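Troubleshooting: if your tokenizer reports a length mismatch, compare your output against this known-good record of 559 residues.
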Amino acid sequence: MLLLLLAVMLLAPAAASAQIPETPDSDAPPTFSGDPWTPAPVFASPAPRHPFMAPNQRSNLHSDAFQTDANAWSGPLGRDTETLSHYEAPGGVCASVTFNSQGQIVTTCIQLRAVRLKLFDPHTLEELASIELPPRAPSTNPFQDFAGGGYFYLDSEDRVVIPTTDRHIYVIALRDGAFEIERDYDLNGPVPGDAKIISALPDWSGRLWFATTAGIIGTIDPDSGEVKVEDLGEVVQNSFAVGDEDDVYIVSDKALYRFRADADGAPVTVWRKVYDNTGEQKPGQVSAGSGTTPTLHGDGWVSITDNADPMHVVVYRRRNGRQVCEQAVLEKGSGSTDNTLIGAGHSLIVENNYGYTGPTATMNGARTQPGIERVDIEADGEGCLKVWHSDEISSSVVPKLSLSNGLVYVYTQDAEGDPDDPWFLTALDFRTGKTVWKRLTGQGIGFNNNYAPVTLGPDGTAYVGVLGGLLLVRDQTAPATEETRPKIRLRAKRRGKRVLFRAKAPSGGVVAPVRGARVKAGKRSKRTNRRGRVSMKVKGGRAVAKKRGYRRGAVKVPR
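Known-good structure output:
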């Protein structure tokens, strides 16, 4: 079957127009269905800017170092949409889309053997630069092998930091319109010769961390190149998240870990939490464990999915690993995911990959299991609940939420099983889960995204890497980006000589207490507790509450 798929791509017409070849269809589905959307911003405190990475929304495929997949930028609103594609002959997914300081697309395009770093014009998808990276090794399922190029990041100097298939990590700069390897960290001593590096990211001190698929976790001193490693002896098949306290979160096929570096720079386990696991590699998963990159969000939480049946969204405290809550999602016997959760304050979104084992799972009318769901953590930070369910079929995409407009973007197929296999960029209402609109992107194997994400660009364009290359969907007029930082709602109630202040703010889908907000009244100033409360001796006047990531709130102090 693999040879058949190769033949399909190789026999496609040469890219004279540079458009991805489509399956001919005399009875194609509507180009657009649904209604244009009026922005309804979702207010959630954004992830902080990582000092050693490019700005949020630009740096890596999950939008930021916290891996939230929640974007401050708008995406298309469904107003006079248009599409464009770039054919990566003879086919190759341009998946991890990032944006340099000039707004150009920097991405890796991965074929069955070749890996290339490429630069594209974001408006025309014209290729501007390319560099060949070490080729991929043979794999039993190349469509589920993301090591050596599937993950990379842009650093704060616009350089690409990327692991290779031959156990190096390159730092690649763009100079005079061409890519140039500026630094090469050779890991072939500390890392075994058969190891595959899945991802590399810096901590808040600039130390470079990496993980291999066989569970070797390592750090690299960026100046000396000194490498320190720890062997978990467990499988790691996803990227990891980096917190703003030099903390690193990695999920294996057994447990979720919080790491920090010791005085010598070596990785040290702060805590390890085993999650529920059937031990089965469900169809749609790359390993027999959690399929999620950890997501840092909200009130000091880190969240993953487990590998129980039914699967659960599980939320932990970052500080000590205490489990906050778990919520069953998707149907028993037909739910799995190998993509990270969207995290927006108290809200999380999970999508179903059950049944996706490669392109044949979505060809000739075959379809994977439906299901996209939102889970909210209760306003008091204890317990969670399922908010909505969508029956859209999103076989393997990494979805994105636009905080600016309130749409969740997924990449879907029809439930009827049209044998011409149409693919759609689909927008869901974050608040209700209802499908707002769908835009046909193309038909046939070349438009299968194969685990690539939806990526939102600075001008409101949505990009999707697909087996044929890269495509975009945009409104004819670029949408505006709305304010998404939540405003603190400060309330005051006098109790004798003291005043009790309460600070709350929208956090994803709920209004929740704001912990750690500084409330200033007159000459007095205190921080709110975990319930968003603080008590002070105040005579009168006005009080103001401030916290990073929030708009300030004010209240008149009662006499």
